[in-house]
Write a structure and sequence with these properties.
single chain; 76 residues; mainly alpha; 4 helices; elongated
């Protein structure tokens, strides 16, 4: 990441200047919610990936296609 500007604005009026001067490091180190949010994403990602792989497996897709075909036939 680039170094902080030598003379930051007294009031950052542009959106990019506000982002550049926001103390992200301070908040991540001193507020619990950011740490638990990151830990939660790290723990939940493999679980969601596994569910996604199981739900979109070729066998499951064909089962659901057959169910939709039977349901559509019942409505006609």
């Amino acid at each position: 990441m680039a170094d902080a500007p030598a003379r930051p604005m007294k009031y950052p009026y542009t959106f990019s200047a506000k982002i550049a001067q926001f103390p992200f490091k301070f908040y991540v180190q001193n507020q619990w919610i950011w740490r638990y949010w990151m830990i939660g994403i790290a723990v939940a990602s493999p679980v969601f990936y596994k569910i996604h792989k199981m739900a979109n497996s070729p066998e499951n897709v064909s089962i659901w296609a057959e169910k939709r075909k039977k349901e559509a036939a019942a409505h006609h």
